[in-house]
């Protein structure tokens, strides 16, 4: 059995604000990534603004490593992906985040996702060092993602392919079982209840439209998968509507 590929490292090149580093760490940990590498952060490291912005992703910040150059930061990586909206004059394979995630999982070695400074993005020399470019399909009239948004997009796509064993278990939205549909006889009783009260209120007017209106009512009520409790609730609503208003 082939061993699962190690999770990719996230490399932030010359990040400018500690707050943005914290937000990127938060994005990483949401999807099970913990290894953060910083290349020449502008304000140094550690940065007091990173912790509050990480919203508790302390394990990521505590393990963050600082490097002088991008080459040093990815020296142990076999596959390097530069994230940029432009090729910046460098001819490289261009992948979507999903395609890059599939390649990361298929490679036995350590991969790196590389992100540039918030204001300017990766420089040409940074992109030249990578093996491929990752570009997010985005509105051509407004191609502006902040650092944490870019990180979370790639981390999410990677997480979709995480095997069940060997990695952090990622939570799925809870599945809430629905009540089974009620027998049709109960629905007929509800329809009858509607008709009796609507007749008393003079709803079916003009009289010659009564059959068509009843047909429309039945069609509407039989579209839903009414459960026993749904039908009981509707009976209660009809009864309540027929009562005199309560005084508060």
UniProtKB/TrEMBL annotation:
Entries under InterPro entries matching the protein: Alpha/beta_knot_MTases (IPR029028), RNA_MeTrfase_TrmJ/LasT (IPR004384), SpoU_MeTrfase (IPR001537), tRNA_m1G_MTases_N (IPR029026)
GO CC terms of this entry: cytosol
Biological processes annotated in GO: tRNA nucleoside ribose methylation
Keyword Lipid biosynthesis among record annotations: no
Keyword Transferase on entry: yes
CDD domains cross-referenced by the UniProt entry: SpoU-like_TrmJ (cd18093)
Keyword terms: Methyltransferase, S-adenosyl-L-methionine, Transferase
Pfam families tied to this protein: SpoU_methylase
Single annotated GO MF: RNA binding
Domain tRNA/rRNA methyltransferase SpoU type: 9-156
Family: Belongs to the class IV-like SAM-binding methyltransferase superfamily. RNA methyltransferase TrmH family.
Protein known as: tRNA/rRNA methyltransferase (SpoU)
Organism: Sphingopyxis alaskensis (strain DSM 13593 / LMG 18877 / RB2256) (Sphingomonas alaskensis)
């Amino acid at each position: 059995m082939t061993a699962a590929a190690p999770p990719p490292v996230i490399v932030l090149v010359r990040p400018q604000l500690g707050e943005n580093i914290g937000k990127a760490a938060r994005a990483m940990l949401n999807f099970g990534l913990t290894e953060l590498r910083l290349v020449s952060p502008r304000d140094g490291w550690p940065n007091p603004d990173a912790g509050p912005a990480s919203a508790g992703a302390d394990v990521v910040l505590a393990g963050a490593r600082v490097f002088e150059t991008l080459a040093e930061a990815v020296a142990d990586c076999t596959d390097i992906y530069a994230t940029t909206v432009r090729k910046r004059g460098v001819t490289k394979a261009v992948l979507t985040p999903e395609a890059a995630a599939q390649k990361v999982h298929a490679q036995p070695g350590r991969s790196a996702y590389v992100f540039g400074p918030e204001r300017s993005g990766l420089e040409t020399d940074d992109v030249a060092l990578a093996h491929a470019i990752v570009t997010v399909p985005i509105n051509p009239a407004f191609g502006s993602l902040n650092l944490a948004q870019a990180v979370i997009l790639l981390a999410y796509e990677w997480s979709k392919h995480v095997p069940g064993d060997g990695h952090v278990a990622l939570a799925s939205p809870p599945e809430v079982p629905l009540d089974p549909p009620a027998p049709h006889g109960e629905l007929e009783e509800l329809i009858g209840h509607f008709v009796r009260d609507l007749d008393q209120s003079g709803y079916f007017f003009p009289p010659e439209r009564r059959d068509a209106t009843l047909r429309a009512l039945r069609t509407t009520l039989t579209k839903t998968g009414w459960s026993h409790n749904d039908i009981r609730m509707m009976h209660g609503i009809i009864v309540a509507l027929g009562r005199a208003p309560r005084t508060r």
